[in-house]
């Protein structure tokens, strides 16, 4: 459930971050909250492939430069950062919801489910979840949602990187099964080339049938 008091407190902290993505976590630690999981997802907008969520708990002494919103990081550097995060993280959980279920329950509910799977996959229950974007319910977990959390919070940024790299790897595997669509290049997003391939070859079993190709 959302922690309204903490939500309001963190909202007042954000303007003081000044580009320091550890600022919010450090203030939370002074409040006695140390087991913090950052949560983010990748793949809400594509026409094909799964939606993937990641939950990441970092150690207090974690120090790897360059952790930020995964979309702002070049592919090679993003892969290196993902390896560093996996090596040093206290805990990582991954949630994947496939296209068939996205079509059945819609992308919002699929994203919520992926987040829940990721959080439930953690070895230990964190004291607090910092979730990127708008509020997503995580049942009995304390939650604070942060707009642009992958910019303001290091743990959320780490989750953003893990979710993106995990999903990209899945799309590379799908490219081997369905090479005509070019999944290895656009990762299922509605690029001009991707839409042209759909018009030419039709949809594959890994396309989201509920999504409109325009």
Compile the SSE list and pairings.
Elements: H1 4-13, H2 23-30, E1 36-42, E2 51-57, H3 75-88, E3 91-97, H4 99-105, H5 107-120, E4 128-132, E5 143-146, H6 149-152, H7 154-177, H8 183-186, H9 192-201
Parallel strand pairs: 1-4, 4-5
Antiparallel strand pairs: 1-2, 2-3
Overview of the structural elements:
With 214 residues, the protein is an alpha/beta fold. The protein has a single domain, classed as Nucleotidyltransferase, domain 5 (2-Layer Sandwich), CATH 3.30.420. It contains 9 helices and 5 strands, in the order ααββαβααββαααα. α3 crosses α7 and α4 packs across α5. The longest helix is centred in the last third of the chain and has 24 residues.
């Amino acid at each position: 459930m959302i922690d309204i008091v903490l939500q309001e407190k963190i909202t007042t902290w954000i303007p003081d971050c000044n580009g320091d993505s550890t600022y919010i976590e450090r203030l939370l630690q002074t409040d006695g909250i140390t087991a913090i999981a950052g949560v983010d997802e990748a793949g809400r907008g594509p026409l094909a492939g799964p939606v993937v969520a990641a939950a990441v708990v970092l150690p207090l002494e974690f120090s790897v430069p360059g952790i930020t919103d995964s979309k702002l990081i070049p592919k090679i550097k993003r892969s290196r950062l993902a390896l560093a995060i996996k090596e040093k993280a206290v805990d990582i959980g991954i949630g994947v919801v496939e296209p068939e279920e996205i079509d059945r329950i819609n992308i919002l509910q699929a994203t919520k489910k992926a987040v829940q799977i990721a959080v439930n996959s953690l070895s230990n229950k964190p004291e607090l979840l910092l979730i990127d974007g708008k509020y997503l319910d995580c049942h009995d977990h304390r939650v604070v949602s942060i707009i642009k959390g992958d910019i303001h919070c290091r743990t959320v940024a780490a989750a953003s990187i893990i979710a993106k790299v995990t999903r990209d790897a899945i799309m590379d595997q799908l490219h081997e099964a369905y090479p005509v669509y070019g999944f290895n290049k656009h990762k299922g997003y509605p690029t001009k080339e991707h839409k042209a391939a759909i018009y030419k070859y039709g949809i594959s079993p890994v396309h989201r049938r509920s999504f409109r190709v325009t």
